[in-house]
Structures are given as C-alpha cells and as structure tokens.
Amino acid sequence: MGKLVFTKTALLHEEPFTTSEIIAEQAGIEHRAVRQLIRKYEVDLKEFGVTTFEMSKPLKGSKGGRPTKTYHLNEEQATLLITYLDNTEPVRTFKKELVRQFFSMKSELMKRQTLREMERPTRQALTDAIKKWSYVNKWSYKQITDLICKTITGKNTKQIKQERNVSSDVSGTDIYNSEEMAEYESLENTVITLLGLNMTYEQIKAILNGQTMQFTILRNEGKEKALNVSDQR
User: Each residue of 50-100: pLDDT tens digit?
Assistant: First the structure.
C-alpha cells in the first residue's frame, strides 16, 4: 500500500489529509460512489472541519470528459466516512494503514515543530557570527544559509521552496523534515565555529563539502601550530 496521507505544502502547520480518490481505490469502489457518500453525509463531515476539494482536468490525449472533483479529508473526516462503507477485508486493511500514516505524519510535524523551536537560539548565534565575520557583506546571510541548505538537500533555498510548494517569504527552516532540520542545526554550529576562525566563504564551503583544510596558528609565545579542520558530522 502506497502513500495515503499528504499535506498541501511542506509548511510546519499544514493539516494532513487523504483524498476521496484514495479511499475509493483502497476500498475497491468507484470514486463516483465515494463522492456521493461525501455529499450525502456532508453535514456530519463538516462537524470535523470544512470539506475541501480540487478539480482536475481529464488526462491529456483522453477523449473529452469533465473535470473530476476530488475531496480532501482530514483524519476525523476520513475515519468517519470509512464507517459508512461496508466493513470488508480491504476496507479494514485500508483503515488500519490509514490510521498508521496519519499518526506518522502528525508525529513528524510535531517533531519538526519541536526541532524548529530548539534551533532558534542557534539561528540567532549564526546571525551574530555572520555580523562579526571579517568578510561579511550584504549577501553573506543568504550565501551561508543557501550553502547549508545545498549541503543537506543538493539545492539552494529558493529551489527547495519551489519544489515543496511554499512561497518565497517562508523561512527555509520551516520546510525541512525532521532529519534535515537536525542536520541543519548541526551544520549551523559547524559554520559558527568556522566563522569564528575567520575562514573565507570558499574555505567554509570546502569543509562542508567534506574536505580537510590545514591552518597554521601563531601562539602567544611565537610558536606555530598546525590545525586540521574538517566537518565531523
């Protein structure tokens, strides 16, 4: 059984949903029958939230046909609707997996929210470190955060926002999944250290890309000491 639960965008506070099309497919009944059921019990479903839908055009190359209405149902609405279906084996199997996926999605969103709150002081420390950096310019903050984003996802912040269907004014840290968020904060701490060593952007980039760099530090007594620096994630 594939993915059953979705969010419209990658934002932290999106509500997970499933669709009337998925319910029809997994229950082994026609999509038209599920839509009729939703309309029949719409008053009941609205007790658990607004019933929303999207219209999709017929596939390119198909002969005619009208746009299809596909309903989006939150966890409570979907659970209620399934109780109106015949309690067949496919329906019971589907309901169990749907419950698992809704729980998993909500747990992931809660974890992301927690990690985001925990990361805020680190974000402020990074901002302060950039301001004190000898090489700072008006693009430095964007360059550094884009670098961290690309190290994690392979794409810069603008590209990842477009891919995950969020507007450009949304903070990048609001769209990372929990694994990415944990790695992001780890890299922020690494960059804060490297900025404190007054490394150039290119040196920081090289270290985040896995290279080891050697620096010579002149100590107070005039002796030199070699220091190897690399990203130890």
Answer: 999 999 876 566 555 678 899 999 999 999 999 999 999 999 999 999 999
Amino acid letter for position 157: T
Q: In sequence order, which residues have a C-beta less than 8 Å from that of residue 164 and are 6 or more positions away?
A: 9, 10, 175
Query: Model-level pTM?
Result: 0.81
CB atoms within 10 A of CB 216: 8
Transcribe the chain into DSSP letters: -----B-SSS-TTPPPBEEHHHHHHHHTS-HHHHHHHHHHTHHHHHTTS--EEEEEPPPTTS---PPEEEEEE-HHHHHHHHHTS---HHHHHHHHHHHHHHHHHHHHHHHHHHHHHHHHHHHHHHHHHHHH-TT--TTHHHHHHHHHHHHHHSS-HHHHHHHTT--TTS-GGGS--HHHHHHHHHHHHHHHHHHHTT--HHHHHHHHTT--EEEEEE-TTS-EEEEEE----
> In 3D, which of 23, 58, 176 has the Cα closest to residue 188?
176
